[in-house]
Design brief:
Blueprint (H helix, E strand, L loop, with lengths): L11 H9 L1 H25 L4 H27 L11 H7 L6 H29 L3 H28 L2 H21 L8
The structure holds fe (ii) ion (2 copies).
Length: 192
């Protein structure tokens, strides 16, 4: 089973906040795509002995870079500049739960990246629903579908390298942790 539900849903207010400060949202979104690409490439470099992971992460890096190119084009057309990178509080708090030890480290990272993509799937879909410009609407709906593929890719890899019961038990723990993190973060004009 590669699909799963999040333990807490983003409220529609989040999309209203993002929409009402759409320029800020775009800047954060572009940074997320760029960071997702470099993270995928760091996985490639970190696991030379795992061909399936390498194949999946190279494809993912290319796709995230293509998304970055698209978001950056929208930003440049609107005359927007990138801000300095700031730490994403959501990602930072999640990554604190990565355990040490090469096996659990890999499992936790695959599952956390899956959950981040799963949340992206949920939120881009919400953006697609609230945006009025048909081009922007289509863009975010298309990205929501991509995030669905990405979250299941990470699950597929987790199942490739670990037993199903271990994967599902840890996924459940991390989903509870993610729900707590999401519920205590204020909604901002940002992906997280
Ligand atoms: Fe993406
Ligand atoms: Fe993604």
């Amino acid at each position: 089973m590669l699909e799963y539900e999040l333990k807490t849903a983003t409220k529609p207010e989040w999309a209203e906040v993002a929409k009402s400060n759409f320029d800020s949202f775009l800047k954060d979104h572009a940074a997320c795509e760029r960071k997702a690409a470099s993270l995928a490439m760091s996985m490639v470099q970190h696991y030379p002995d795992k061909p399936e992971l390498i194949r999946g992460m190279i494809d993912l890096a290319i796709e995230e870079m293509a998304h970055f190119r698209e978001v950056m084009k929208i930003m440049l057309d609107r005359g927007l500049q990138q801000d300095n990178d700031e730490k994403d509080p959501y990602i930072n708090q999640l990554l604190k739960h990565v355990r040490k030890g090469s096996d659990v480290y890999l499992l936790d990272r695959l599952l956390i990246f899956s959950i981040v993509e799963r949340r992206g799937h949920e939120r881009f879909y919400l953006m697609g629903e609230v945006l009025e410009d048909p081009k922007m609407k289509d863009f975010y709906m298309r990205l929501a579908k991509a995030e669905h593929r990405h979250y299941t890719l990470f699950m597929k890899l987790a199942h490739q390298y670990f037993d199903a019961d271990i994967v599902l038990e840890r996924l459940d723990q991390l989903l509870n942790i993610e729900a707590e993190i999401v519920n205590q973060l204020p909604y901002r004009a940002a992906v997280h």
